[in-house]
Amino acid sequence: MNRTDFMIKLESLLQDISTEERNEAMTYYREYFNDAGPENEDTIIKELVSPEKVAATIKAGLRDHDNSEDGEFSETGYTDPRFAEKEAPAARTQDGAQGSNTQTNSIIKIILIILIALAVASVAWPVLTGVAGAVIGITFAIIGLFIGLVCGAAAITLAGFILIIMGLTKIAVAFPTAIFTCGTGILIFVIGLIATVGTVKLCFIVYPAMFRFFVNIFRKIVHKGKAVL
Amino acid sequence: MVFNTGAALLDAIVLAVVSREKEGTYGYRITQDVRMAIDVSESTLYPVLRRLQKDDCLEVYDMQFDGRNRRYYKVTDRGVAQLNLYRSEWKSYSEKISQLFEGGTTS
Q1: Residue A137: domain span
Q2: How far is B35 from chain A (nearest CA, A)?
Q3: I want to staple B7 with a disulfide (CB 3.0 to 4.6 A). Which of A10, A66, A78, A89 is the partner?
Q4: A57 and A95 inside one domain
Q5: CA distance A10 to A5
Q6: Which residues span the membrane (chain A) (predicted)?
Q7: Candidate from B27, B42, B51 with C-beta closest to A48
């Protein structure tokens, strides 16, 4: 690679910086070659290593100037990551940027986590409310069913009781019918009473069981949450 | 060299080298002068000079030389102040380090 090739390559590598900065850098290296003289051309090209390295150094310098407040006069780095000659220029520039950007990175990470959480929540929220609605609905349906059974049983008991009264009122008018009605009434009353007691007992079994079931689910969710955290 | 030359020290060395020339000096020569003290690659100094120029520690002017243009760097008042700061900082820093190295036998 000769001087002309070097300069052309360098200029093409500096396309992504401002025209002013590019011109400044190109002027500097053009004059540098001029002042060194044609006899030193090969030495200089060898010592500059590659246009890639020179371009990386120029860009690193520009970036460094942008956040000079926190980086410029520190004791660490500067020459180390950027002028070490082992790695590829691209890798070197990244190394240089890493130190000063660590804090920014962690802030960006936190923001990202919040955004992801919000995105997940916005999708999960309707699903969660749907599931919660279904669970609550089924729960009240079961509660209602057993209350209904108790009410039905109580109604049968009441019907039996009313039949007994009706039978008793007819006792003087039509004795056999009255006895029959009373007997049926007593039978229905007893069946109703048994059913009432049975359904109430059933309620005493079912409602605590349901309650325990929900407590268990709730407990599992809480414990799971703790385990994740 | 075993020791790293940090950004501040590099700035100080460049300012010192440029300030020796009352009429200013140019890129190639600055590099040669700096290299008499520390081992820097040819590409190291351009960003340093550019930064010092942007920070108003150096000013540039173009002058004809040998039938072509040449850019000269000169230390500004601000550059002189900065260099003096570096000088005093370096003096106390290097004295302390020397003191440690030489076993605290100084008065």
Answers
A1: 108-228
A2: 13
A3: A78
A4: yes
A5: 8
A6: 107-128, 134-164
A7: B42
